[in-house]
User: Fold this.
Amino acid sequence: MRIKALLAAGLLFAACTAPGGFSRRDEALLDKVQRQTLEYFTTLAEPNTGMARERAEDANGNIVTTGGTGFGIMAIIVGAERGWLSREDATQRIGKIARNLEFLPRFHGAWAHWYDGDTGQAFSFSEYDDGGDLVETAFLVQGLLAARQWTSSKVLRELCDRLYREVEWDWYTRGTDTLYWHWSPVHEWKMNHAIRGYDETLITYVLAASSPTHPISRQCYEASYKTSSYYYNGRSYYGIPLKLGMELYGGPLFFTHYSWLGLDPRGLCDGYADYFEQGRNHALIQMAYAREKGQPRGLWGFTSSDDALVGYSGHYPGTPDENGTISPTAAVSSIAYVPKESLKIMRSLLRDRRVWGPCGFYDAVNYSLDEPRQVVQHYLAIDQGPQVVMIENARSGLLWRLFMSAPEIGPGLEKLGFYYTNNQ
Assistant:
């Protein structure tokens, strides 16, 4: 069914607001996890900008993250709707972030991956990555649009709208049929990184196609994103089919989270895949993989996170990076796809007091190591934010409802060939 027709009929809204069906015991646990994890974006917010710190303790200094801030904006909205923050407090926090985003250095409307919270200048993510980062910008804009749809503040609505309109998505095509990830005023297109999937970057094409000021064409999406060697999968793992993604078990689980914090996967199809089924099957495959590998305590969830052995690492199943490290964010943020299994993991993790801290679950656990190294007691914005947001989507569909209510998104999805089925 066409997306605009669903919106007009109220069917998509109804699907997004369907109750989660959790027991009171489950609801109490979800309250605990969401509320404590939210502390990362409130108590630990960077004081100058209000943005999310890249990590709780950063050797590089007072570094804030663009994409993680987008996730944090959505988490703050959850806090207000759950009554853990007043609407006034939440509006002020998001407003502070948005006002600073307006004046931070931008690169044809796109923000850098990182900024120095003390100086307000872009902070290099890597040697040549010191300018615009279009994917991190997309994660941020996803949050800004949710905030625009949520707030009753006319000033904040207009600011969020203007920030979205000023992103020059079409300029990042370089006049080709491809979106490029990075541009630097010093190194220009030296990184030459085309954005191709299937991975966490789908939201970039959706927002670019939906842009009212700098849109891309469907051809750009078809000729680039879908031509990756890891777009179409078509295999089965442990008897579970996976239509899209990397050959090695579909890749890390954050592929099923980052674009889907606002974009509603339920019933979303494009002729290749049902995207809710894609996310659910990816999680089920990882569960089967964890059982095969003999993970203790029934734990599962492999994604990029910190690591006691090598620092930040991918932990992709089937690769040398998969060293037994379980990242709580992977299973917790999959709750919208596999609620019972995610709740079971939360309870299992909470039996080990070392895994729980002032901002919720710590970043990584590896019980194959000696005891002092089993729990990595660090926090990263990009791992904490999805937990708050995806739990809320499982409970109430709040962020799905807000983001999908943005009038630009339905036509943008249709432009790219997406549609919603009738059986939502």
